[in-house]
Protein 1
Amino acid sequence: MSTIARTMNQGLFPVRVDPIKSVEQEAEFSGSIQVSKLERLQNFLQDDSGEAQVEIQFGHDQQGTSLLRGQCQAQVRMTCQRCMNPVDVELSTNFELGIVFSDEQAKHLPKQYEPVIAERDDLVLLPVIEDELILSLPMYAYHAECDDNELVAKAEEMKPEPVETEAPNNPFSVLEQLKK
Ligand SMILES: [Zn+2]
């Protein structure tokens, strides 16, 4: 049992931590990250609105492998592949990563863990979280129901030459017929 008190930090999510100390202390961090700070993730999104709620815990398994476990939820805006309008998408992911300090160590990591390679005294967290969010993106985003009016408007726009259609109840066409 660790004699060091577990640390719990609320609020702003830390940019970087000391990985060895964090594992020893079984440190936990939680907080939010603006999507606008995650540029690689934005490449897959309609805009940079939204934020991610993140919770991570450091620790180790029974074999002594250093671990970074976490949960992450984010509300992002993607492009609906049916109507091409923005659609809100809820991302949610859980991860369990093995902390290593070299490629060599990564190779020897138990198979169930994805490696995260850290410096001895420095682990930059944002890219790790960003990778997990990118992995959790759906392949395609759709509205449950697209706005039909918008769809019709788009279809009209795409017609090369709009054809004038005469509705049967058009009062003018009724007049035309009366003249005849
Ligand atoms: Zn749609």
Note: Residues 8-159 form one domain.
Protein 2
Amino acid sequence: MIDSHCHLADEVFAPDLAEFVGRAREAGLAAACCILAAGDAGEAARARAVRAAWPAAKFAVGVHPHQAHEAAGAAGPLVCNQLTGDVPICAIGEIGLDYHYDFSPRAVQQEVFRSQVALAVGQNLPVIVHTREADEDTIAILREAGAGRVRGVIHCFTGGAELARQALDLGFLISLAGIVTFRSASALRDVARTVPDDRLLVETDSPFLAPVPHRGTRNEPAHVVRVAEALAELRETTIEAIEAHTTRNFHGLFGA
Ligand SMILES: [Zn+2]
Ligand SMILES: [Zn+2]
């Protein structure tokens, strides 16, 4: 199994990093994609520790919409600086729009998102997209960049059937997180049944968002197995099939 999106270089994991990596491996995880906040020197240093503890881990870097206001006008160069750092970068992310929290003005979020999508297209890297209550603008910006030119994944998908359809039309993958284990998330569970096998990824978004039965505790990459189990049940298939598809899709998007 592969956790397509976690924040393993977050400071909360640092004191017991070896323990979390050990538990991920024991749970059968072959790899993970570790998301880094562009320009965060502490996180960049911890990323080196993650790479040393888990050589199979991959890394992505981007300016999150929550931090867009701090990077306005400079997001591209900020990310660019980290593309040739000490850990290899396989994607630009997470980037996008978050109109739920609106921590940055929407126009600024859009400008920062757009510039990073352009950078990804120029670098031929996939994007990892965070979108919350911003479906239309997210799809519009991705469309502007051009279907077939921009590729990537909508991470921690929480949208409805329409966003899923539009993302799939653009050639994007859809990554599902622990929310699919919540019985209350019936619309999302319906989407989870219909994503084609070759477009599906699983993730934890740890340390955020723990799945059932770990809800309310600190999430960690090993818990991605719970997400895969929930998907196997929803899609009436086996966890081995979910593992095979999501592993192939992960490497197809982010490289071997
Ligand atoms: Zn996110
Ligand atoms: Zn995240």
Note: The chain has a mean pLDDT of 95.
